[in-house]
Amino acid sequence: MTAPDTLGLILAGGLARRMGGGDKAMIKIAGQTILERTLARVAPQCALTIINANGDPARFAFTGLPVVADDVADYPGPLAGILTALEWAAANAPAIEWVVSVPGDCPFLPRDLVARLHRARAAANTPLACARSGEWRHPVVGLWRVDLRGDLRHALVAEGLRKIEVWTARHGIAVADWPTEPVDPFFNVNTPEDVAAATKIAAAERV
Asked: What are the structural domains, with CATH classification, of the chain?
């Protein structure tokens, strides 16, 4: 199948506590920031791409992309960023019915992410899909239908829901699988040790 037009969402709003604070997306891996690596892989798969981040948006101005902050109070986690993207798409790109979300700390994302997530949800006849590598599901790496935004806002604001998998289970979610060798495409950078490991991977695998 040909994947329908999809909005790409880079979730760059994490607090990076284990890295001592700051933006994990701006950490350099073999001379490139994680954000640059993420955009190089994800943006070509998407009709449009936006960044979800709180604080001063000017720090991402070099990308030339819209930077959209959460509008749900108290930093409720990635579901707030996903909601932000669904509502942004409805207001600014109404022809786009799908959003793909990726975290801002994964430097080796697959270049076929969007197509495979769409194939998985179409085969399962579900409105949602997420990635899995090996035994690990990655609920933040997901495909979301824009018309579910009202239900998601209610879950976040009225119910106080924070767990992605609790909400996705209500609607049905397909899983798309990737191998973990030679590189887990969803390797994420949380600590200085992860930075060192990612730098070695980038050098050895030229990814």
From this structure: 6-205 (3.90.550.10)
